[in-house]
Amino acid sequence: MNARASEAPEIASLTAGGGRLPLRTLLLLTMIFWVYVTLSNILYAHSMQINATQVTHAVLFAPWDVRVLQHILLLPVLFACFCVSIRVGWAPLRGLPVQIALGVGFASLSFLALKAAEALAMWLYPEPMPSLDDKEAFGALWTASFTNFFLTYSFGIALVTGFGLYRGFRDTELRLKAVEQGWTAARLAALRMQLSPHTFFNLLHTIRGQINQEPQIARSMVVQLADLFRQLLSAGQRDFSKLSEELKFVRLYLELQQHRFADRLTVVLPDPDLQPDLWVPSLILQPLVENAVTHGLAGHDRAVAVRIEVLTSSETLILRIVNTIGQHPTASRQGIGLYNVRERLSVQFGAQAALSYGPADDGTWVAQITMPALREFSPQFGATAEAFFDGRHHSR
After folding, report:
1. Is the CATH number 3.40.50.300 carried by domain 212-395?
2. What is the reported pTM?
3. I need a surface site. Which of 47, 115, 256, 307 has the fewest CB within 10 A?
4. Where in the chain are the domains?
């Protein structure tokens, strides 16, 4: 029963323009089109008959009720022709001859439907009704009816085919958008997964250096590392986190580093609890802070200071990591961390965000993230911040 129900939508639809056109939609489209054609033909025949009475009193056009009956009789034929036309398609060798045959066949039946409508009207209304004097002009009347309804059918099949093409294009765009969203989500997940092992292994090396010299400190660092890794896993499952949570995570990481470099590393952090209620990409600060510690300490034995600054405006958030460096640093600042930060900003904000880094002077290095200030974003939205901001911009 369930299998048949799941197949029903496919059975009750036709392939049109690269997409699926349900029979119900095709029937509705055909009926709307045919109502328009019926009214147009009735009004045209009525106006022409009024003009003709100025010259002759002969009945040149069928009465309006006969016209209505004629179009009612032709409606199922038209719908059947549309169904066959959509199934056959427009392939030059096979489809085009069939399409022409359908149009010719439908137009040929139009005059017969008119005669059948006249007979039906005479049966429904026993009183005498005006009828067409077509005994001597049967060929001319048939040709006129054929030409009119062939052109009408051609317009109708163009309308149906165009609607099918539109649906196919729209469905393709929707599928493409879904694929792009899935690819974006997978790309962000891959970037976050690259961050987690990178951080974890570096911290393990930090603890290893303390095991023999300071076992008590090493044990304390293991506990802190467990807390850090727990937060790392939690943040890695979300696209966005609160700014205060990111700063708390960074503080925990820097406290671990200070255990090893107690005499060389000083840290200045803003109070997480005093920060504005903003959303930022999860783990966006950690790679930059890790770079500040690793490359700031490399190449010399002097003290290093790491400072994090948060600057906000109504629409922009600036996160700045400042650290001191040696006069002649040997370590390269290009690496997977900076690459991931730049990629995540590009995926989630597009051109609205930027990462810049470089020496501010001979002894200071600055890495700066500029991004939109997300004040209303919620992580359950499941969309990139770029799409969120586009929607907010258009709603204004």
Report:
1. no
2. 0.53
3. 47
4. 2-175, 212-395
